[in-house]
Automatic annotation (TrEMBL):
Classification of source organism: Bacteria, Pseudomonadati, Thermodesulfobacteriota, Desulfovibrionia, Desulfovibrionales
Organism: Pseudodesulfovibrio cashew
Name under which the protein is recorded: Response regulator
Top-level taxon in the UniProt lineage: Bacteria
PANTHER family noted in UniProt: CHEMOTAXIS PROTEIN CHEV
Response regulatory domain segment(s): 181-310
Keywords: Phosphoprotein
Modified residues (4-aspartylphosphate): D243
One GO BP: chemotaxis
InterPro entries with a match to the protein in the record: Chemotax_regulator_CheV, CheW-like_dom_sf, CheW-lke_dom, CheY-like_superfamily, Sig_transdc_resp-reg_receiver
Stretches assigned to the CheW-like domain: 21-166
Pfam families per UniProt: CheW, Response_reg
Length: 313
């Protein structure tokens, strides 16, 4: 199945706080022998195509237990990861299994699953933040979508790849000339820690929030505090850094709210995602984002933040 075959043809309007997800499932064999389906979802924009299982046998020297080997696809050689191993699900292998081929964060990767179901258009406001139980089991589940008879667990595949193959830290960290305050919004604990460390190492003071809605509440609370104390908003926050895909409120909607506010609109906003397509770039521009970068370039945030702050001063 090619990407065009799974495309719905619906272009989501900017600021509507919506996304399209490809729902798939992983069959799990329980201790009593019963088979159950676990349902998951990923952003359709990250899916290149869906192919039949290549029936790989994991090599003995696999860099990670989920690594099954590599396969040729077009002019690429891509790794295939068994998603059930990562999620610690006892998935029986069958000839009906499929591989979802994804492209994001400048990498192409295949993920082995049991099958796909359909595509859903959902609002980020419908996405339920993961419970503490789910958060403890894996950081890769960033939210739940209630479909009545089942829950779809939204997966952050970037978190999985980051934990399997951590990105090297940059040794060339620019230092700020004073302690600028950066509001950070990301629903992935792994990415939050990476961004927080990068900013702190460069001399910034990160203000960390777990999703767009929490960031929205925080920045408008800071605005109210600044007004009550008769101070400029930059006494409390200098710049906003936000992921695009988050439960409750996405980065586009957060940016739109900031840029439409007469007090907050002067604050630079950096958006990031695992993919920045022409369509996403257009959406970010339309809501007033000052810069959009991909997650492999997160290490550049301190330098880019300094440029934007100094450009404002």
């Amino acid at each position: 199945m090619s990407k065009s075959a799974i495309d719905t043809g619906i272009l989501l309007e900017t600021g509507t706080n919506e996304l399209e997800i490809l729902e798939f499932y992983i069959v799990e064999v329980l201790d009593n022998g019963e088979e159950v389906k676990n349902y998951f979802g990923i952003n359709v924009a990250k899916v290149m195509q869906v192919i039949e299982t290549p029936n790989l046998e994991p090599p003995e020297s696999a860099p990670h237990p989920s690594f099954m080997g590599t396969i040729p696809l077009r002019d690429l050689i891509l790794p295939v990861l068994d998603l059930s191993v990562w999620l610690e699900l006892n998935m029986p292998k069958t000839e009906r299994d499929i591989v979802i081929v994804t492209e994001f964060s400048k990498t192409v990767t295949g993920f082995l699953v049991s099958g796909v179901t359909e595509i859903h258009r959902v609002g980020w406001g419908e996405v339920i933040p993961p419970t503490s139980v789910i958060s403890q089991s894996t950081d890769a589940i960033v939210g739940l979508v209630d479909k009545g008879e089942r829950f779809i667990q939204l997966l952050d595949l970037e978190t999985i790849l980051t934990q399997i193959d951590p990105q090297p830290e940059s040794n060339d960290v620019p230092m700020t000339d004073r302690e600028y305050k950066i509001l950070v919004a990301d629903d992935s604990a792994t990415i939050r820690m990476m961004v927080e460390k990068s900013l702190a190492d460069a001399g910034f003071k990160p203000i960390i929030t777990n999703n767009g809605n929490e960031a929205y509440q925080k920045i408008f609370a800071l605005k109210a505090q600044a007004e009550a104390e008769g101070k400029d908003i930059t006494e409390y926050v200098d710049l906003v850094v936000s992921d695009i895909e988050m439960p409750l409120m996405d980065g586009f909607s957060l940016t739109k709210n900031i840029k439409e506010d007469p007090v907050l609109q002067k604050l630079p906003v950096i958006l990031y995602s695992s993919i920045i397509t022409k369509e996403l770039k257009h959406k970010g521009d339309s809501v007033g984002a000052d810069l959009q970068i991909t997650k492999p370039d997160l290490h550049t945030i301190p330098e880019e933040a300094m440029k934007l702050i100094h450009g404002r001063i």
